[in-house]
């Protein structure tokens, strides 16, 4: 008897940004294995399920990826409906592809429920469009936790040619800024650090690559953070106030 594993994207944080499909899977789940950055309110939707945190955070011990695979496979083979609840989108720097391959190799039925990635949501909620006509028509999403992850990509991008969105990058912001300057990016290129997108403690800092390199950017306060590099950051000053007005209007309704 085989169950089903749903690889579900939890979005950037606010449970209201979960898709209808994600909510439906959570409500029917027997077992939920959730990441560290998934908010408690999203997990609580699975009222009848057993719930276990299997998240990994930088510098902290976490559940081995192979263990996560085993937990999903074992539960599904017992006929359970398993939700693997992942921050953002399962296939955007979330190891969802590895989990899907492990399920496929074990002949366990699975599905993917996409989520809103913080790579797009965090800049948007801070008033920064990752693309904008006349400014840039492209963006690249990079993992910022290691030079081995971002340096080969930076080598292939002409300085200033597109917006860079770096996840897992807050603790390495100075090193990333130095790598950009070395590759010819202008020191005055705008930069933003966005914390806790869509949550009550959301916060944004704006400056330049040179400022990041000097250590002016805020450090990691234990909240999820996104680093944005590019001229689109300049648009925040024009868009953030209107966004706040719109949120207040939505609440008043």
Give a quick account of the main beta sheet: strands, pairing sense, barrel closure.
Answer: 5 strands, parallel
CATH superfamily of the largest domain: Tetrapyrrole methylase, C-terminal domain
CATH class of the largest domain: Alpha Beta
Q: Specify the number of helices.
A: 9
H/E element order? EHEHEHEHEHEHEHEEHEH
Distance between the termini: 48 Å
CATH topology group of the largest domain: Methyltransferase, Cobalt-precorrin-4 Transmethylase, Domain 2
Q: Which range best describes the helical content: under 10%, 10-25%, 25-40%, 40-55%, 55-70% or over 70%?
A: 25-40%
Strand order of the largest sheet: 3-2-4-1-5
Uncertain stretches of 5 or more adjacent residues: 249-253
Kindly name the structural category: alpha/beta
Q: Given the C-alpha coordinates, what overall shape results?
A: elongated
SS strand fraction? 15-25%
Number of strands: 10
| Rg from alpha-carbon coordinates | 19 Å
CATH architecture of the largest domain: 2-Layer Sandwich
Instruction: Calculate the mean pLDDT score and round it.
Output: 92
Number of domains: 2
